[in-house]
Amino acid sequence: MKIAVVGTGYVGLVTGTCLAETGNQVTCVDINEQKVKMMQEGQLPIYEPGLELLFHRNISQKRLLFTNNLADAIADAQIIFLALPTPPGGDGSADLSYVLGAAKDIAKLVTDYKVIVTKSTVPVGTADKVTAVMNENTNVEFAVVSNPEFLREGVAVEDFMKPDRVVVGTTDERARKLMAELYAPYVRQGNPVIFMDERSSELTKYAANSFLATKISFMNEVANLCELVGADVDMVRRGIGADNRIGNRFLFSGIGYGGSCFPKDVQALAKSAEENAYDFKILNSVMEVNEIQKKVLVQKLKKYYNGDLKGKKFAMWGLAFKPETDDIREAPALYIIDELLKEGATVSVFDPEGMKNVKALLGDKITYGADAYEILDDADALLIVTEWSAFRTPDFDQISGRLKNKVIFDGRNLYDLQKMIDLGFYYNSIGRKIIS
């Protein structure tokens, strides 16, 4: 099948590459000439485990192409995916200008039946808006389909190649058959392709992410209560996660959620509810809790240092919003750094993949280490912000020898409490007793 993917951001590039892997002819189009040239030369613009192998294989076998020319990309395509940014506007609603702009451009170029698929996360009613834009600019027959992505950064290739479900919103029978054919190779194990109307499909993505964000914020609230009553959030998590009605995923407490999806999607769903005169109380609380939780380590630091962080040096392990990605969008690390700098502290950081992106954003406001240990020299405390595997079993002798004091503030609960007692650390984590 011939496919066009408009937009080569995270979703577009993973989608295009994985579609090519099952034998489709895929052309990815982007307005950024430098980025397109980079990909044509075999360079990946993002870090995602497992993507590089598929990317190079499909380029070499000429199933995956890149261009700046929209007309060339869509000329022979049966299906056109729109994988474009939908950033939050000033009021929290999703900005659809990129999606609708692309739809207008496509409408002026099509000469035969096309299936236009919104892969971007978009509010309820977007398919109707895309349809209206297309109708205003072409008389050629087309169908607009909603096909939200459920990719987790760090395991996105696996999620695409072996999805637990595929959601397709369409009322067009011809489009339904094409989408079923397209996704057949990915659901051979029997996982469902769930067909529904476009509006239900659009809401499904927002509802899924908002529910997961709610679980995270709920557990962070439980963790905060655990600290007050002397309970251990890890024990509570295990106790409730064993209930199959609840499940054990997204129950880890920490310093809030970040990334490109949860913050934006929760905000957009709440805004959509507001536009329909509905007060979505739970989501408003979820957002409030998350904003507070992102800075909980700073509050712990202030309490430990009697409110005075001026002149203190902190070493920070982790910048990306989660491990196995270089994505720093809405990362708690950025909020923590900002607060520490305001308090007059200095910050040295290390992250296996995220430093380049943070450096582009913050420049020399902070310092960057070549490895995890050099930033510890003369630091007053170590802050753990992202749960990279490399941080789980560190060399504690190096940590002890390099830090000014044996003090760790752990926003991801990586270490066993008894081990911290045995090693003689002051250890302050989330929802567990303080080891002092």
UniProtKB/TrEMBL annotation:
UniProt KW NAD keyword: yes
Domain of life: Bacteria
SUPFAM superfamilies: 6-phosphogluconate dehydrogenase C-terminal domain-like, NAD(P)-binding Rossmann-fold domains, UDP-glucose/GDP-mannose dehydrogenase C-terminal domain
Domain UDP-glucose/GDP-mannose dehydrogenase C-terminal: 315-417
Catalytic reaction(s) noted: UDP-alpha-D-glucose + 2 NAD(+) + H2O = UDP-alpha-D-glucuronate + 2 NADH + 3 H(+)
One Pfam family in the UniProt entry: UDPG_MGDP_dh_C
The keyword Phosphoprotein is annotated on this UniProt entry: no
Molecular function as annotated in GO: oxidoreductase activity
Pathway: Nucleotide-sugar biosynthesis; UDP-alpha-D-glucuronate biosynthesis; UDP-alpha-D-glucuronate from UDP-alpha-D-glucose: step 1/1
InterPro entries for this protein: 6-PGluconate_DH-like_C_sf, NAD(P)-bd_dom_sf, UDP-Glc/GDP-Man, UDP-Glc/GDP-Man_DH_C, UDP-Glc/GDP-Man_DH_C_sf, UDP-Glc/GDP-Man_DH_dimer, UDP-Glc/GDP-Man_DH_N, UDPglc_DH_bac
Alphabetical list of Gene3D superfamilies matching this protein: Cytochrome c1, transmembrane anchor, C-terminal, NAD(P)-binding Rossmann-like Domain
Keywords: NAD, Oxidoreductase
Enzyme Commission code: 1.1.1.22
NCBIfam families on file: NDP-sugDHase (TIGR03026)
Family label: Belongs to the UDP-glucose/GDP-mannose dehydrogenase family.
Annotated protein name in UniProt: UDP-glucose 6-dehydrogenase
Protein source organism: Mucilaginibacter lutimaris
